[in-house]
Amino acid sequence: MMRSLFSGVAGLRTHQTRMDVIGNNIANVNTVAFKGSTVNFQDMLYQTTQNASGANQASGRAGINAKQIGLGVSTASISTNIATSGSAQSTGSPFDIRITGDSFFVVTNGNDQFYTRAGAFNVDAKGTLCMSSNGYPVLGYAPMKNEAGETVINKSALSTLDIMSEKNMVSDPVATTKAYMSGILDKNSESFTTDLGEVVTVPFYDNLGYAYTAQYAIKRNIVPPASTPEGSVDSGQYTLELTDILNSSGKSIFTYQADTGGSKTYNGQAITTPDGYSLGDEMKATDKKAILGKADVLSVGGTADTDNQIFLTFDTFMTDPSSSPKGTLMTVTSAAQNAAQTKQTPTKENGKDTVGFTLNLNKLSDFSTGFAGMVGTGGSEKGVAIDLSTLQNVDNKGNSSISSDRGSIGSDAGAGCRVGELSSISIANDGRITGAYTNGQTKLLGQIAAASFANPSGLEKAGDNLYAASMNSGEPNVNDITVDGGSMTSGELEMSNVDLSAEFTSMITTQRGFQANSRIITVSDTLLEELINLKR
Question: How sure is the predictor about 513, in pLDDT bands with cuts at 50, 70 and 90?
Answer without folding.
Answer: very high
